[in-house]
Specification:
Layout lengths: L2 E4 L9 E3 L2 H7 L5 E4 L6 H8 L3 E6 L2 H10 L1 H6 L2 E5 L16 E7 L4 H5 L25 H7 L2 H12 L4 H14 L5 H12 L5 H15 L2 H13 L2 E11 L2 H14 L20 E3 L5 E2 L2 H6 L7 E7 L1
Parallel strand pairs: 3-4, 3-6, 4-5, 6-7
Antiparallel strand pairs: 1-2, 7-10, 8-10, 9-10
């Protein structure tokens, strides 16, 4: 969901052009109806709307949704665009019918540039920024509350799984030790704990990795994605395309494995002894390898460096 640069006027106004926009447009070129599950600033959706595509945009962030509706108000008034406040992992709770089908479905995971640039949202390690990191009002705890209450063993597992941190146990122990003296309240508190473990030479890449891990836990991102994948697959029309941009190895692994399983000749559960799917794959994987941002795009915005795009087509 990470944008790259300001767009020329007439394309998307003063907003940023989303990562891998041309690749997404190519993969969903035949779509006449699109579900944008991570509306954010509305960059992808704006491009689809300009082509005459009907778009339903979903976001769990009320502020992001309000801004997108203001930006795309003309399309909403005409009926071409519909905005829905919802978590893409729980569309039924937002009133989506099981009969709602789309030619294209897009997920641009991670934090939007608008969320990232707003220091009050607490997604960055800016000095004095609050430890919040909630993408929407549906998160149970903010980052500070999580760090102040989570069990040391669970925190160690979180840092190991989501940040690939080899010193996860030591870092968890340091966080627990510090919170006993004073609760974590700002980004500085977490940065100081990271430095205490990784040393004075630790810097922005280390902070970003740990902050990302905490954010993933706060918003239940990997579990939500895992639950959503089969449900979104079933919302595709025949020949419809599911395109997903990820920024974390755990996200990409979930997407890759799901697409592989859905493209197999037999999709019955492993423990089912008799095949009932008749040996027909559910569809085919469009991207054998993930598509990355070009060097030019990365030069314009380093946030695009970790973007990985995979796409799958329904039979």
């Amino acid at each position: 969901m990470t944008p790259v640069r300001s767009a020329p006027s007439g394309r998307t106004g003063t907003y940023h052009v989303p990562v891998l926009l041309s690749e997404i447009e190519t993969m969903l070129a035949n779509a006449t109806t699109v579900l944008d599950c991570t509306l954010g600033g509305g960059g992808h959706t704006a491009a689809f709307l300009e082509r005459g595509v009907r778009v339903t945009g979903v976001d769990r962030d009320p502020r992001a949704l309000a801004a997108a509706r203001e930006r795309l108000g003309e399309y909403e008034r005409s009926g071409q665009f519909r905005a829905v406040l919802a978590n893409y992992a729980a569309l039924e709770e937002a009133g989506f019918s099981t009969d709602d089908r789309f030619d294209g479905i897009l997920l641009d995971l991670g934090v939007s540039s608008h969320q990232f640039d707003d220091a009050s949202r607490g997604f960055t390690f800016r000095e004095g920024a609050p430890l919040d990191m909630r993408m929407g009002t549906d998160a149970d705890l903010d980052a500070g509350e999580l760090l102040n209450t989570i069990d040391e063993v669970d925190l160690s597992a979180l840092l190991r799984a989501y940040a690939d941190e080899p010193r996860a146990a030591r870092m968890a122990r340091e966080i627990v030790r510090r919170r006993e003296r004073r609760p974590f309240a700002t980004a500085d508190d977490l940065v100081d704990a990271i430095r205490a473990v990784l040393g004075p030479r630790s810097g922005a890449p280390d902070f970003a990795r740990i902050f990302q891990a905490v954010r993933i836990a706060v918003n239940d991102e990997l579990s939500g994605l895992e639950r959503a994948l089969p449900a979104l697959r079933d919302r595709l029309t025949p020949g419809g395309v599911l395109a997903i941009i990820s920024y974390h190895s755990g996200e990409d692994r979930l997407v890759k494995n799901a697409f592989r399983d859905w493209s197999a000749s037999c999709v019955c559960p492993p423990r089912q002894f008799v095949c009932t799917c008749r040996g027909r794959p559910l569809g085919d994987t469009i991207t054998r390898k993930p598509v990355s941002a070009t060097e030019q795009e990365i030069d314009q915005n380093t946030r695009a460096r970790s973007a990985r795009l995979r796409a799958w087509r329904s039979a």
